[in-house]
Task: structure prediction
Amino acid sequence: MNSTRIKIDDLIGIVKQGGKIKTGVDVYDDQQVLLLERDVLIENVRTLELLQEKGINTLTLDAGGQSGGIWDAQGNQVSISKNGAIGIETKAGTKPAPGAGLGAIEKRLQEIEELKTIAAEKYDHAKANIKRVLGQIRETGGEFDYDEVETHVSELVEFLTVTENPFSYLTKEIFTYDDYLYNHSVNVCAIGTAVVNRFNSNFSAVINDHLNAGAPGTYDPFVKKNGIEKNSYKCYHMDEIQEISMGFFLHDIGKVMVPDEVLNKSGRLTKKEFDLVKRHSHQFGAELLEKNRLKNAFIRNIVKYHHAPLYEGEERGYPVERHPSDIPIYVKIGKLADIYDAMTSKRCYKEAFNQISVVTDIFRQYAKKDTMLQYVLHAFVKSIGIYPPGSIVYLRNGQMAYVLESSGPLAIPFTNTNGETLEEKPDPMDMGDRTVKDKFRIDNRRSIKTPLEVYNLLPSYLQPKTT
Result:
């Protein structure tokens, strides 16, 4: 057998592109437990990921193709050189197999594109659903199909809860406001769910560390010193997160009862008009939930109190019937998501604000107000990122760059040092990489821009859609 060792990362890249793999060799772990039989055709990335989780980072393949091999999405046999290079034989020579041999950044970009495609599909389905819901309310005088909403939101939440920084992959509308209420419902659901997940992990870990440390005052009626269960506390369980996400999705449902001429008024609202708008949450929204016999406390609290004060002394919050300490944590998360999306979206009376400025403003508004709010704020900033996707930054050499992903952040320069659009597409840079030269790092001294302000400088591959 002519065997060759191949990096699993390369094989994952091939399978993600629709390829298939058969090792032709039984795969064992260090304890000689059989993990994969030689004749199994690998068509799912998860099979390879499970092997990685077992500590296996390379696989031995029958390079001769008699009992194993690699095939691309079109069924072409993929060749493997003696040094493990993977390619497809063509008349012009050997070309790399799709997905193989990519660097870390290229692989991440590939993953981002794949996730964006999935996110766009989930987003469109959810948006169409909230549009139907509000239409049903108008037609029936208040009733809607809750089961249908639950189905669509569950699909969206499934994506949001298994994806790192799901917010990064949702399209941000900055040019039109015609579908603002529908977009806003999905965005708040996506942002809020991402923040809830991060808060849930972080805060639960803090409590478990406290319990496991046996801190003074920690009482266990059965165990005095040892044997405390690890990770026994979880703030929110999955079914609760599902219900919280439903609340985020339906948080503005009461706005369907506010006349369009008031909601979409381009000028300043009168006191009477503003009082009417404020009723969308604690009155109109609550009444619609009652009419549909929805007693779920998570949903009801989010709908009623997502504009309530988050700390004692916060102005302009409503209603004020509850003390801020009695506002549930998930409602506070919903309010931050609501503020962020409203400020970074185009409205009939304003343009979209710069994402970086909005994150900074929210942090300044709510930092150091109370302990629990600090945990909420930390989860919010970590989820959105200091440099959110789609924001524009200056580099220290004078170039402007577009943030592709907040983690890092991962950014791509689109102008030269003179502010002129680059003709060629440069490679993205991970700003968190210590090897990045100082001149290519973000210059926080320069005034930031919105995508709208630099739209004419953005190359076509970075321009947001205008319709």
Q: What stands out?
A: The first helix runs from residue 8 to 16. Residues 3-100 form one domain. Residues 88-96 have pLDDT under 50 and may be disordered.
